[in-house]
Amino acid sequence: MIIKQGFTLAEVLITLTVIGIIAAITIPSLITNVDLDRKQAEAIIKKTYTSFNDATKQIVMMETTSHTMGSVGCSDSNCIRDLYGKYLSYIKTCNSDAQDNCLDGAPKTSEGGTVDFTSKSLAVLADGTLVGFGYDNTCKQYVASLISYGEAPVTISNSCVAITVDVNGPKKPNTVGRDRYQFAIGKLGVKFKAATASP
Fold first, then answer.
1. What's the whole-model pTM score?
2. Alpha-carbon distance 16 to 105, whole Å?
3. Cα 181 from Cα 89, distance rounded (Å)
């Protein structure tokens, strides 16, 4: 007499149930660790750009008599960050000489160069977006502006403020044009896509 060996239906069902439970626990965490896709990154940078554009308009109208960003009464990037803080919600701030708490292990400079957090005052917005502020009260700095996914930065002259953004905070990829962007603010407001030669 030949005895056939195999799994019973109960054993197969128990095994599938265990695999399902493990998948239900691990798949959500795997999904959240995947790099930001293009649509997510574009939506966040558009929202951040709009928020800063609105805040800049309020600062120019409410904080100065000459209505220009060069006369807001700030002499450094920490001051300009705090001025924007009146119109935006931060959950954390870090001065330009103590950035580690805001960077949370992310590199200051990133692949692709030109867009980085070196020597900038930092703030973390309520949605986790990391923002760096650079300020020149003479409004003569050159800023590598990049607000579109996957494009190359464009140099903008006569800028007062450089706003550097990492849309997913310290998480990877920390790459220019994927999760890191930058835009310039001139005397009268946000400036972009006005190419000039670097000095």
1. 0.77
2. 40
3. 19
For residue 179, give the amino acid letter: D
Q: Which helix (H) or strand (E) holds 185?
A: strand 180-185
Cα 179 from chain centroid? 6
Amino acid at 161: V
The number of CA neighbours under 13 Å toward the Cβ of 42 is 7
d(CA 195, CA 41): 24
Q: Are residues 151 and 144 in contact, defined by beta-carbon separation less than 8 angstroms?
A: no
Q: Is the distance from CB of 183 to CB of 52 less than 8 angstroms? A: yes
Contacts of 111 (CB under 8 A, 6+ apart): 173, 174, 175, 176
pLDDT at position 194 is 42
Q: Name the nearest CA neighbour of 160 among 94, 50, 80.
A: 80
Please give the pLDDT value at position 151. Answer: 82
Q: Name the DSSP letter for residue 3.
A: P
SS3 content of the chain, % helix, strand, coil (to 5): 35, 25, 45
Q: Tell me the mean pLDDT per 10 residues along the chain, length 199.
A: 73 87 76 65 90 92 86 92 95 93 89 82 94 93 87 88 92 87 89 48
